[in-house]
Fold:
Amino acid sequence: MSRAADDLTEVLAVPGRAVGFDDARWTAMLCAALAERLAGTLAERLAGVALPDTVATWCDNALVQAAQERRSALWEAEMARRALAALGVPVVLLKGTAYAAGGLSAGLGRSIGDLDILVPRDALDAVEAALLAAGWEWVKPDPYDDAYYRRWMHELPPLIHTSRDRMIDVHHTILPLTARPTPDAALMLADSIVLPDGLRMLCAHDRIVHAAAHLFADGDLAGGLRNLWDIHCLIGESGTDGLAARAAMHGLEPAVARAGRLAHALYGTVVPEGWQRLTVVDRLFRRRMLAVDGWGRDVRRGTRLAFYVRSHWLRMPPAMLARHLWTKWRR
Amino acid sequence: MAARRHIADAAMPSVTMEGFAVVFHAASGATHLLASPVPEILAAIGPDRGAATPDEIVTRLRADYDMDGEADDDVAAVVAERIAELTASGLVRAA
Amino acid sequence: MRHAIGLKIGPVAFRVGSDWAAPIAALQSLYRDYPAPVGVPDYTVRLEAERPWRRWVRPSVAVRGDYILPEALPLDLAHGVLAAEIGMNLQLALGERRWLLLHASSVERDGRALIMSGESGSGKSTLAAVLATRGWRLMGDEFALIDLATGAARAFPRATSLKNAAIDEMLRHAPEARFGAELTGTPKGRLRHLRPDATAIARMDEPAMPALILFPQYGGAEAAEGMGSAEAFVRLTQASTNYGPLGRAGYDTLTRLVTTVPTVAVDYPDTATAVALVEQLWDAL
Structure:
């Protein structure tokens, strides 16, 4: 394992551990943080720690960047709110934008990318029309992808705003309809929390369930350390009472339990005793997550391919996967 | 159909350069170069003035500026077009 | 990474790592007179083999680092020093938030800065290099850094990148000892780096208040025309890689710059004419 990756997780958990690092050790950890999109988060955590001048400079720069990403993300959410206000449907913010809008600790210094929202499935057509009317357009005009998306995916095909050049992903549930676990989207919507401007975010437990589902089922774990930090913050803020039961209602108890175990192992999250030991498979996930080195490179290419295939399998039953890959390859 | 009311976002810092108002919109972080009558329209529906329809904006503009010789309908049409542009760029929202 | 070097150019410290020795050796030579950086670098650049075997077979340098352009094409190993320059430019352009960055050359005289903004081909780099041989201090050939609090220009005097005819032009003004190796067949043609003189390096931490902004354009009949602040503002936002991300600070800094410093659009048929025009405009301030 690279020391930079270990230093990163240990210092995020307990910032005081960085005191006494020499320049080379700082350099490697900061570089790894940037590669994992945790620069702003790390800079926030290091506030209040006595830092060498050049590290303080790096942190200041990282905080300005994070503030800019936050502003852009919240503005994108506001413009989506304006476009959809007249429809009267609940619009639930997901992931980083939700953490920022909701004033959650997971939002501090967080690097935020595209806007993700969750709306009722029967409102999808109206939402699509309203966004197109307000200046968004489709990213990929490919008929096969489009048909696949609409029938099986958990979101509209990606939309991008013409003048702001930012993407929005409109979800009607949090996992593809072809995936094995089938979360209860209606329940998530029903229990969502209203924010001051009228937008919504998921309730505390659902936020953790969504983050865990996203972490394991929705990708090849690229960005795993950041997603796991989100879960660490979310659990820290709302605790785990009733979490496993809520996760079970969505068929996602294994994912949430794994997230809890890994967060405890990497970040020292306070979790119930049953989540305080890693399984053999957990260790593979941890290996994959800690695959960044002190130059910002991904050093586990072999593991990455295995995870990519696995993540596709999780979203599609094998026969369908074969057909999808065949059609993709033929084009 | 009744016209919609619009209101401008919070006060924006503005620097005048050669007759243009160069304004900074904090919420979006965007900078806009605005030519007359856009700055005047924005001022007429600022948070301190409250939301207004195009016709109401015309009334406020007439009270603030000398606009003899401009027919109400013409001015209202121009105002409506500018409001549409301002809404698309986010400086103004329906209220 | 196997080979690495630390560089400090003005206020910016880079760590450049490479899978091959040659680009690092070239950087070591170009930057031999610069003080060594201390502490933690601001940015990391990686010159990497695209695939493991490409380290040796048709070696091809992928430019990566803290900030990466996914669509960037790799370069020949023979052009490794250019790859390093591109890598450093990229980190600064995409990551910098401490200063307003302008795509411009800059020179200093009597504590005041002349800023020359323009695209590739405008001649801004050559002009700055020539003025530096005529009593001006070179502050930079590619990026001007404007302090967000004070509006002062900071120097970023990297090795000047000269292309094609500009190389021959500068050989007439500066000793060959200050030139790096010539690269041929680069995406921009012939390329040679010119090391800044000792004064530029020794004084690279001295800021200077901008006193004149020029938009030079090489190739036309001699002409100089004052530019209005609104036009200057718009053109400088286009010449900046980080105006937008800086938000209010960028807005305040740039509006202050264009409303307090005169801007002139200059056309010139040759360097001698340009230099004379510059001296004339500067004296008239």
